[in-house]
Amino acid sequence: MLEEVEGIVQGHRDGHGFVTRDDGEADIYLPPNEMRAVLHKDRVKVRIVRSDRKGRPEGRVVEIVERSNQVIIGRLLHESGIWIVAPEDKRYGQDIMIPKAATGAARAGQVVVVELTEPPALFGQPVGRVKEVLGEIDDPGMEIEIAVRKYSVPHEFSEACMALARALPDKVRPQDKLKRVDLTDVPLVTIDGEDARDFDDAVYCEPTKIGKGRAATSGWRLLVAIADVSHYVENGSAIDIDAYDRATSVYFPRRVIPMLPEKLSNGLCSLNPEVERLCMVCDMVVSEDGEVTAYQFYPAVMWSHARFTYNEVAAILANTRGPEALKRKDRIDDLIHLHDVYRALLKSRVRRGAVDFETVETQIVCDEVGRIEKIVPRTRNDAHKLIEEAMLAANVCSADFIAQGKQAGLFRVHEGPTPEKKEVLRNYLKVTGVGLTISDDPSPGEFQAIANATKDRPDAAQIHSMLLRSMQQAIYTPINSGHFGLAFEAYTHFTSPIRRYPDLLVHRVIKSILAKTKYVLPTLPTPGEAHAKLSKRLEKNLASKVAEPGQKPRKLSADMLAWQSAGLHCSANERRADEASRDVEAWLKCKYMREHLGEEFSGVVSSVTSFGLFITLDAMYVEGLVHITELGGEYYRFDEARQELRGERTGLRYALGTRVRVQVSRVDLDGRRIDFRLVQEGEALVARALKDKGESNERAPFEQDLDSAPMGRRSRKISEPLARSPKPSAAAKTTRRAPVASKSRDKSRKNRR
Predict the structure, then answer these.
(1) pTM
(2) Which terminus of the chain, N or C, has less C-beta within 10 A?
(3) CB–CB of 7/15 below 8 Å?
(4) Strands of the 181-182 sheet, one edge to the other
(5) Residue 557's Cα: distance from chain center in Å?
């Protein structure tokens, strides 16, 4: 009997799909004819019937176990007397039929939310009704309205949550200060971006002596005060349940979907200047070589003595007699001490070999109606790095305190690269002539050494990008296995409880250890699909680590299983927030580039695939695709190890870092895709390459595989055979991918840590 498995359908914009298996094994390919009766996110049982020409298991749907209840967002269209909704998410491969009586108040062309009333069938389209009208496609903020629904981001607080928030006080009351250290006379300050509205961390530093008598050495006392959200958000309360459901705040250009009601996030919990606020303090002693020699945690009440911006602090540190410094004379010495302790902590980072690549982050600058005015690089100055190192130090102390207290809690775990990713990286480093590689059990220092050795190369950005891609994503888990990138044996998140639920849990655990009690997680809502998907992947990774025969993974207690579930939920929702943010930024960039259709720009190859080149424009930091059919009338072979396309006739290579000039040829707003075509400089490269080869038709010196391949391919991997086809017409169909959007918030870097 052929194997049958269950899983979730993942649609693809090209009409086919995949089933992500419950057992975590390889996805099962569904051809377009199998997708006619199912939709993206349906749960199905499939029978594996064969392997397709690419070696993928191909399936046939034998049972639809459960239909997805996900609403669908799209534009309402009236065509030939029939009302349909064209889904905005192209993974839903079919238009939705809408009976006239089910259109409600919606008008043709508007963006609507649709609820299915009849699922698709082999010979019938799905039918639905308009549940909500979002507005016109060009309305300000429409891209955000679409994204929060497309990714199921909770964006409305429950009535119970809002009622509880309204009942909270407007300021710190006398009874709130009981059993707290009074730090109101300590000049703690906040340092954030210009557009920040929630301030969850404040810092203060002063010189101190470590030890006694002649043996005493110089050092610093560093205070990191964090908003005490746990004082107001009680375990298992309506606010707590809503916060857990969101798990994180979601940042969009010009708008934030907060984890907590505004009364808390921007008011009662936010460390606003010159008001009393409750906080949890990590009070550290840091030596001259950047080691934390002692620390303690305690609840306190504070008074922020100033609200600084990163640029303001950087300007003061650069010139302590400049105009910015004159406005803040009372705080100059404190900032100098913070800068001194930062430089000491930086020494410790270098000794640990922590990974620290300098990547370009961008900021989208919008006008009043939400249109992009420009996209600019966001430079990280010493003020950004100063705060980051202070937060890292407090997070490490938090992890150590929880481990020493022998209580369960969430760690921020970042594991090293998988064997597959290590092999890909080794091959890339070899063929690009870096001269360094990584060991079988690499340390973060090896990655940093490669980054340092290549920082002055023209292709440094591409090499650093490959180093980053080889690493796994960080997750929240109660099982501590260290943080590879930061080179910490134990690490957690303590410093952002206003916008991250794991930090709120860490605060509660720290308080319970101080009170000599045990923290018990509240009964939390059932995790969703994203949690289940991530859980299967992590189980598979865990199983691959069982090295010795007969060795089994240890079974977790009920308490640890509850913590693991909470960690998976928070990790999955962190990814959901990132995806929604990237989707909105991609939309905005597409709208921006529509105004530049036909214009020419210089750029660099930022990614190479078998179907073309992704180019990042120098001036705009926008990425688009030059499809392989635009590279000329010959075959290009994709070399995965070298990350390049190479022409068989000309020998012309397009690799990471290759500089090109392109024209903006097409923008697909719905698909979040930007297409470029190479202009004259590309044609000149071809002519020069042919001349260099002496007009030879000699093949590139790559090994060939004699297996058969379908005609008409415009590229192939090295292991694929040679093939020929006529030059495609200008109308040839192309394949495109959405542009990658960078993060655009100052606090995003802290969030990712």
Answers:
(1) 0.84
(2) N
(3) no
(4) 181-182, 292-303, 276-287, 217-227, 201-210, 189-192, 306-309
(5) 31
